[in-house]
Design a protein that fits this description.
The structure is a single chain. This protein is of the alpha+beta class. It has a domain of 86 residues: PDZ domain (Pdz3 Domain), CATH 2.30.42. The chain contains nine helices and ten strands. It starts with a helix and ends with a helix.
Length: 357
């Protein structure tokens, strides 16, 4: 089941990614020759508006095939013949749609299931926040100058605390107040402020609390949830580059399918059929949002063959005011593709090794 769900998730996020390229190409006047769901041999297809829409047998994503060069006889406009700015727009549109998908999913989850806020609901006695003068109803604004938008920001920031003094800024009656104190470790050695955050219920869990979210707030938090995923993805990539983490901490599609399978199994152990189905759907949607944000970030990296690598080349073209020779651009992208495939093989090997170790 984990493999099937993983394939479905990858298919969804890649199709959404390619739809971004598709609509941007159409807006830019570039001829789209085919939009495909899946890879491999064609299962069935139809043509509409001069575009071939196909569904292929292998459920591993999809693609948007554009005309390479213009053809006056057929009125085709090639991708390589439009301006560098238009090509940059087309390339950016794919990752952008991955971020939009993540916001849509996370906003929907927040609206349906509720979410923790950065508003103080209660204070734990014996902890520094209460002693410093923070009160229920205060909204946490920043910690050590780092803006706190959502509960995940606060939770992550607290997870890296070591007990040193910090400045916690809150908004109270429209005024910003600063409090300086040191977090206190609990019985498990985890540093805490002693704040219990306010929870707002969603439309599926109205009985959970007197505070209820609304669709605007849910999607506002969904936007910052997406930015949080982007932030931790970038930090993870930097840690990988600087060898702060190893490939053992990285999972590819094989390792991900094992994770999805575990999450699915745990969700199915939830009491009650309806609640069990809800937990499966919510957990799979969370994984989809995470992977969609990850794909958006990775595709924007300035690596040849990725959207970010192409964008980098087109920026160079704008700066030098003349196009890069097609054979050189093709060679650079070929090297990038080979490196990506090599990394994929290494990660897949580690995934298999972990599964059988």
């Amino acid at each position: 089941m984990g493999i099937v769900i993983t394939l479905i998730i990858f298919c969804i996020i890649v199709i959404i990614h390619e739809e971004g390229h598709f609509f941007a190409a159409r807006l830019s006047g570039v001829t789209v020759e085919e939009f495909a769901i899946g890879m491999g041999p064609v299962a069935f297809s139809f043509r509409r508006g001069g575009i071939l829409y196909s569904v292929r047998w292998l459920p591993v994503g999809g693609f948007c095939r554009m005309a390479d060069t213009s053809d006056k006889k057929t009125d085709k406009v090639g991708f390589n013949d439009v301006s560098a700015l238009r090509r940059i727009f087309i390339c950016i549109a794919g990752p952008f749609m991955n971020f939009v998908l993540a916001v849509a999913i996370l906003g929907f989850i927040n609206f349906g299931c509720g979410h923790s806020t950065v508003v103080v609901d209660e204070l734990s006695q014996g902890y520094p926040a209460a002693e410093a003068g923070i009160e229920p109803g205060d909204r946490i604004y920043s910690i050590n100058g780092e803006k706190i938008h959502i509960y995940s920001d606060l939770s992550y920031y607290m997870s890296i605390q070591t007990g040193e003094k910090l400045t916690c800024s809150v908004i109270r009656d429209g005024k910003k107040l600063d409090f300086v104190f040191s977090p206190k470790a609990d019985e498990n050695g985890v540093y805490k402020l002693g704040i219990i955050n306010r929870y707002k219920s969603g439309f599926l869990m109205r009985e959970a609390t007197e505070y209820k979210t609304n669709i605007a707030e849910a999607f506002y938090c969904g936007f910052y949830d997406m930015l949080f995923l982007v932030k931790i993805t970038v930090k993870g990539l930097l840690q990988l580059v600087t060898a702060s983490i190893s490939l053992d901490d990285v999972a590819g599609p094989i390792g991900l399918s094992a994770v999805v399978s575990d999450v699915y199994t745990q969700s199915m152990e939830t009491p009650g059929m309806l609640f069990r189905i809800l937990m499966v759907v919510i957990n799979m949607l969370n994984i989809t949002a995470l992977l969609s944000a990850n794909l958006g970030v990775i595709n924007l990296l300035p690596i040849p063959a990725l959207d970010g690598g192409k964008i980098f080349l087109y920026i160079i073209e704008l700066l030098r005011k003349k196009p890069i020779p097609p054979e050189k651009e093709g060679f650079i992208n070929l090297i990038g593709f080979a490196l990506i495939m090599g990394l994929g093989i290494v990660v897949a090997f580690h995934d298999v090794f972990r599964l059988f170790s």
